[in-house]
User: What shape does this take?
Amino acid sequence: MKNSVSNTARLLAAGLRALLVLTLVTGVAYPLVVTGAAQALFPGKADGSQVSADGRVVGSSLIGQSYNLPLKAGQETPEPDLKWFQGRPANGLGENTLNTQYRLIVSGATNLAADNPELVGQVKAAQAAVIRDNSVPGSPVRREDVPADAVTSSGSGLDPHISPEYARLQVGRVAHENGLSVVRVRELVDRHTEGRTLGFIGEPAVNVLELNIALKQLLAKS
Amino acid sequence: MGPTTAGVLQALALIGALAVAHVPLGNHMARVYSSDRHWRVEKWIYKGIGADPDTQMRWTAYLRGVLAFSVAGVLFLYLLQRLQGVLPGSLGFDAVAPAQAFNTAASFVANTNWQSYSGEQTMGHVVQTAGLAVQNFVSAAVGMAVAVALVRGFARTRGGELGNFWSDLVRGVTRVLVPLAVVGALVLVACGVVQNFSGIHEVGQFMGGSQQWNGGAVASQEVIKELGTNGGGYFNANSAHPFENPTAFTNLFEVFLILLIPVALTRTFGVMAGSVRQGYAILAAMATIWVGFVALMMWTELAHHGPALQAAGGAMEGKELRFGIGGSSLFAVSTTLTSTGAVDSFHSSYTGLGGGIALLGMMLGEIAPGGVGSGLYGMLIMAVVAVFIAGLMVGRTPEYLGKKIGPREIKLAAVYILITPALVLVFTALSLALPTPPHSMLNPGAHGFSEVLYAFTSAANNNGSAFAGLNANTDWFNTTTGLAMLLGRFLPMVFVLALAGSLAGQRPVPVTAGTLRTEKPMFTGLLVGAILIIVGLTYFPALALGPLAEGLA
Assistant: This one.
């Protein structure tokens, strides 16, 4: 009995030593080597693909943002600023509940089921809002024109893209709100529409932050 | 080009890349686990461990090594999280609460990576890189070691020795996982995955003001998370987060990483067992199931049944635009047919049948192609059962790879198969019978049941993905899923190693005209059929209550 206890202790000690040695290899040396190489070879990307406009950092080309008006008194959810192209809904995005000395974004999805009435309600409300916001005099938006990505929350809540269909749907409104011609805004969207990688990987997409930066530059010029 | 064509082409590209890559990698791993030579750095490691890497172990000694190493892993990772509040380099984050720390330690050591926490607000740099990422490597290496031990059981004649656990563990890390991970991490960074230690910092926003970002060693963890079929995300949104998976290309690359080692191990098996065609027969069974599941998943997601998805006009809830339906379906099938559990889209918002396909993938025991190591040994156990069924049909003592499958062997295989379903069904039933656990469900109706069923299926099969609406951060779920993960990982390993020991002690029987040709397509068909029937019979009632009820409503 005594023998087996000491055998077990010896074995556990060997297990612990193996873990500590392998922690040095995979938990210290490996991440430091990769970080060093990443920072040397791809510094901008390793730090989050930050983009600047007018001489200041305005976010990351990879991370979706909201383009809302400031909250008015008594409002709980801010209204979208219709001057700018809008991204996808992000009903699953949260704020941190732990370590609240920081104000962190907690990425996430709604996780609502396809047959959950709450999700049906969210989708229909989003559809109504898209139709209301984007119908400009003379060119109303029909329900069947609203693409799925405009009314569903992404997986991360940080999706930086919208579909080319949703971007084109917003052209009339953005032109109207900014006093620009539809043709010029449409051209902007076309220029920012990325096809599939190598023609078949992923889906065609428009990066909303990059599009809005280009729009801002266009406004500054005109 | 429509999304369907693009999805099919992505699947074909993936198959092509794996067909090319698995041969050299499989051959390399066969050499790694057969070589007598030690690298200098490995000798230092063995000195540090205090183990002789050349001592041959019988199955009991091999198992003791696995268990001692894993117990040490659970204790160390638990302590690291509990001490986070006083550890430097932890962003000032608090210690993780005890139940959650136990759950997370069990989860990462068991290669499950179920997460009841949100990474960005819970885990600082030190716990992520020196705790969680380390288990991403070593739990994968343990799985590979056990698979190789089983292959040696088939390949070796008499003696009953299975190799040396410490040597297999260390070589899996130094010669397979670390080199691949370094290359893969740099590919990911080149595409936009972040890799820094800048902690939490302010970044400006377009509309003015700023937001706080959580930097970290993400790429180095992301790559081993996929390569080691682990699945634990740096961020809460896992591989849907643009900093973990920024482009459609990285998405396909990550799916490739998930499938790479499990597929290559079939080659390793063939080479070590002395017949690469035996490896191909196993790979063909895996590929058949994977292709079938991909086709079904793409079909149901593109058809987008379900009231909310119909209203939206597409199954884009919980999916990222850059991946689309095709890329998301490929990821979802590959992550649940392996023990990965990383997600690039949220399975809970898939169509009812799509969620069911993800669930069924895990219920198959994650063998197509399965987790690193665990996929191969799981599939070989199913092959033993298939051989046994064939033997019953013709009234011959079944053999596989020249070893007799006698009463002892078939008992060990049968118990192996029973462990996970027992854990899944008992824990699910208990959770539903007790008054408080159902309060964790987010969705009403059949989907709420599916959330609980999914949680225990994922835990006991060491997957780690979730119908993530379920609030799993309760004492009940932290404790029960923690137990299900540990028992679902290490109990089956006991029976695998016992089987390996029993096989390694046998003299091979000569091949005769009456031997079942296990390298032929007929055997592949028999194997796939046996898997589907055994799993179907086990889980059909539970599936009928959850995803089938939702999907066919």
